């Protein structure tokens, strides 16, 4: 289904842009090794969203020399501050602006110190949820881009740009990988939507969580990457899409 959609694009001489974000890294683990091996096998760029609290020098040491791997700011401690009965969020509108501003600034400084030029100033809120208070703070904290899940909101003057993900390999209710057919249908919809859009359509973002994957999620990720990496209708411009720290 998605392969046919890509073939139609290629036949028309058109392409979609894709990128890949993986969340929740803190240190070097066997799961991280498996993730990096996939990126290397398919020769694809990978944006790793790292949690500042608990981020270890071992992670920076492991990524040293890994071409095409960038680091994004994944919240602060990945702690839920939402009241009971609400969806989990670390940076929703549940706390004071000053407390959240401080956490983001500290986390950004931590990742800049650990990862240097590998760090890109993109804020990835845990659970892909962010309040309007925090959105308004990001540009002033040197974070011009936010990355969540779903279609980008219209740009607001002075607010962050969005570089989002749209294709999650996990079935979070069952805590296992989705079926290929389910993801393939979603991917075909994303491709067709962008095929009918003007130039500059929103990139398609693949979302993975290496520490949460079961074997079905790993197999699905490998199959998706194989499809998307090899197809002439897909441009993997990941690093070019991410802002650089000034």
Notes on the structure:
- This protein has 246 residues and is of the alpha/beta class.
- The protein has one domain (2-241): Glycoside hydrolase/deacetylase (TIM Barrel, Alpha-Beta Barrel).
- Helices cover 37% and strands 17% of the residues.
- The protein has eight helices and eleven strands.
- It has helices at 2-11, 30-41, 57-63, 97-115, 132-138, 180-195, 215-230, 238-241, and strands at 16-25, 46-50, 69-73, 119-123, 145-146, 161-162, 167-168, 170-171, 176-177, 204-208, 234-236.
- The strands form two sheets. Strands 1, 2, 3, 4, 5, 6, 7, 10 and 11 form a nine-stranded parallel β-sheet that branches. Strands 8-9 form a two-stranded antiparallel ribbon.
- Helix 1 packs parallel to helix 6 (180-195).
- It is globular and about 50 Å long.
- The mean pLDDT is 95.
- InterPro entries: CE4_u4-like, Glyco_hydro/deAcase_b/a-brl, NODB_dom.
- Belongs to the polysaccharide deacetylase family.
- Is involved in generating a small heat-stable compound (Nod), an acylated oligomer of N-acetylglucosamine, that stimulates mitosis in various plant protoplasts.
- One of its GO terms (molecular function) is hydrolase activity, acting on carbon-nitrogen (but not peptide) bonds.
- Residues 22-145 form the NodB homology domain.
Return residue spans where pLDDT drops below 50 for at least 5 consecutive residues: none
The geometry reads as globular
The overall strand count is 11
Q: Which class best fits the helix and strand makeup?
A: alpha/beta
What is the number of domains? Answer: 1
Can you name the CATH architecture?
Answer: Alpha-Beta Barrel
**CATH class (first level) name:** Alpha Beta
**Fraction in beta strands:** 15-25%
Largest sheet properties = 9 strands, parallel
Q: Give the integer mean of the pLDDT values.
A: 95
Query: Could you give the order of the helices and strands?
Result: HEHEHEHEHEEEEEHEHEH
CATH fold naming:
TIM Barrel
- The helicity comes to 25-40%
Q: For the terminal residues, how far apart are their CA atoms?
A: 42 Å
| CATH 4th-level superfamily | Glycoside hydrolase/deacetylase
Number of helices: 8
Radius of gyration: 18 Å
Pfam families: Polysacc_deac_1 (PF01522)
InterPro entries: CE4_u4-like, Glyco_hydro/deAcase_b/a-brl, NODB_dom
Family: Belongs to the polysaccharide deacetylase family.
Function: Is involved in generating a small heat-stable compound (Nod), an acylated oligomer of N-acetylglucosamine, that stimulates mitosis in various plant protoplasts.
């Amino acid at each position: 289904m998605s392969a046919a959609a890509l073939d139609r694009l290629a036949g028309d001489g058109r392409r979609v842009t894709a990128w890949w974000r993986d969340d929740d890294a803190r240190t070097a683990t066997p799961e991280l090794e498996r993730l990096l091996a996939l990126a290397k096998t398919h020769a694809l760029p990978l944006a790793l969203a790292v949690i500042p609290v608990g981020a270890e020098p071992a992670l920076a040491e492991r990524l040293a020399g890994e071409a095409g791997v960038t680091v994004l700011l994944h919240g602060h401690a990945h702690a839920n501050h939402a009241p009971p009965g609400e969806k989990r969020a670390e940076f929703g509108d549940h706390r004071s602006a000053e407390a959240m501003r401080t956490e983001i600034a500290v986390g950004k400084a931590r990742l800049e110190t650990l990862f240097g030029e590998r760090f890109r100033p993109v804020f990835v809120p845990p659970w892909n949820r962010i309040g309007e208070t925090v959105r308004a703070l990001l540009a002033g904290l040197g974070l011009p881009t936010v990355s969540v899940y779903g279609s980008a909101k219209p740009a607001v003057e002075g607010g962050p740009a969005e570089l989002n993900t749209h294709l999650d390999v996990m079935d979070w209710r069952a805590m296992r990988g989705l079926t290929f057919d389910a993801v393939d249908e979603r991917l075909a919809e994303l491709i067709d939507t962008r095929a009918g859009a003007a130039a500059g359509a929103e990139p398609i973002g693949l979302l993975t969580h290496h520490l949460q994957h079961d074997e079905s999620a790993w197999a699905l990720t490998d199959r998706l990457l194989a499809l998307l990496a090899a197809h002439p209708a897909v441009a993997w411009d990941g690093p070019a899409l991410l802002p650089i720290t000034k």
